[in-house]
Amino acid sequence: MAAEIIDGKAVALAVREAVAADVATLERPPGLATLLVGDDPASAIYVANKRKQCEAAGMRDLHQHLPGDIAQDELAAIVEALNADPDVTGILLQLPLPDHLDAAPLIASIHPDKDVDGLTEVSAGRLVLGKPGLRPCTPSGVIELLDAYGVQIEGAEAVVVGRSDLVGKPQAQLLLARNATVTMCHSRTRDLPSVCRRADILVAAAGVPRLIGPDSVKPGATVIDVGMHRTDEGLCGDVDFDAVSEVAGRITPVPGGVGPMTIAMLLRNTVTAAQLAAVTA
Ligand SMILES: NC(=O)C1=CN([C@@H]2O[C@H](COP(=O)(O)OP(=O)(O)OC[C@H]3O[C@@H](n4cnc5c(N)ncnc54)[C@H](OP(=O)(O)O)[C@@H]3O)[C@@H](O)[C@H]2O)C=CC1
Ligand SMILES: Nc1nc(=O)c2c([nH]1)NC[C@@H]1CN(c3ccc(C(=O)N[C@@H](CCC(=O)O)C(=O)O)cc3)C=[N+]21
């Protein structure tokens, strides 16, 4: 039995329509400041998509394309100016940055109520403590997909492969907050396939092309592929899609799975940030 394909494009479209409806009820359109430093081609495509969808949802696109040789203190000053600017609802610093820049202090300096990527220390703390706040886009998009397909999270065995600050760690926290039994795997995990086979919900975010094969999947499990790799044959994920589809109950494709959700949740977060700003104004 082939697995049901989880259609991230369709769910993302529904989220964006709901966001546009929420934007229409706000007094002022939210403004999203995307910062793209340098000319990484993949980042340029992502940021272009974010900007296009931001405008389509009725929000203001406050993009800045900065030179690849910008100094750390210049970039820090731009973030500070955006923090202070009431027209700026959300700030997104596209990663990775060029090698001479240190991303950590820049991310840390983003005002937590404008942190639409959910990457600041305050946002991470709010997530862990179960307080309202802005959640990282990719893992919250994964939760949205699970909900859209009626996958039961409460009580489920969830295994997350990867423990990055951007994806794996917040993914585990979000699943835990929904009462899954969560296991986190990483590069030092002994016998990854046997741990993965416990999963009712398996989230692959290791950044290793086709790391997850059919021997790592319990029959009927829901498999979510966060990985994104450009190969000569096109895009692929961290999951061996063709082989795993024969075992899994549901599976996300790459492209058309988690990727579109990341952008939809960024727009959702921008509306949430506008609402947070309205409360504190
Ligand atoms: N679709 C989307 O919207 C997005 C997709 N991505 C994609 O998701 C993937 C992961 O991204 P990100 O979290 O930023 O990546 P990172 O490289 O920051 O983290 C990778 C994690 O996977 C672990 N890992 C690496 N190799 C293995 C292995 N062989 N077995 C088990 N664990 C392993 C690492 O372990 P350790 O900690 O021990 O080093 C690390 O925790 C990438 O392909 C990225 O392109 C990322 C963001 C958004
Ligand atoms: N500060 C920051 N926040 C991020 O959220 C962030 C980042 N930096 N750096 C890089 C990763 C990667 N990322 C993706 C966004 C959209 C798609 C996406 O739309 N993917 C489409 C395909 C796009 C294509 O064809 O290239 C899909 O999977 O269908 C993928 C990956 C966000 N990231």
TrEMBL record:
NADP(+) binds at residues 162-164. Homodimer. It catalyses: (6R)-5,10-methenyltetrahydrofolate + H2O = (6R)-10-formyltetrahydrofolate + H(+); (6R)-5,10-methylene-5,6,7,8-tetrahydrofolate + NADP(+) = (6R)-5,10-methenyltetrahydrofolate + NADPH. GO terms for molecular function: methenyltetrahydrofolate cyclohydrolase activity; methylenetetrahydrofolate dehydrogenase (NADP+) activity. It comes from the Bacteria. Its EC number is 1.5.1.5, 3.5.4.9. Residues 6-117 form the Tetrahydrofolate dehydrogenase/cyclohydrolase catalytic domain. One of its GO terms (cellular component) is cytosol. This is Bifunctional protein FolD. Residues 136-276 form the Tetrahydrofolate dehydrogenase/cyclohydrolase NAD(P)-binding domain. Pathway: One-carbon metabolism; tetrahydrofolate interconversion. Catalyzes the oxidation of 5,10-methylenetetrahydrofolate to 5,10-methenyltetrahydrofolate and then the hydrolysis of 5,10-methenyltetrahydrofolate to 10-formyltetrahydrofolate. The lineage of its organism: Bacteria, Bacillati, Actinomycetota, Thermoleophilia, Solirubrobacterales. GO terms for biological process: L-histidine biosynthetic process; methionine biosynthetic process; purine nucleotide biosynthetic process; tetrahydrofolate interconversion. Keywords: Amino-acid biosynthesis, Histidine biosynthesis, Hydrolase, Methionine biosynthesis, Multifunctional enzyme, NADP, One-carbon metabolism, Oxidoreductase, Purine biosynthesis. Belongs to the tetrahydrofolate dehydrogenase/cyclohydrolase family. It comes from Capillimicrobium parvum.
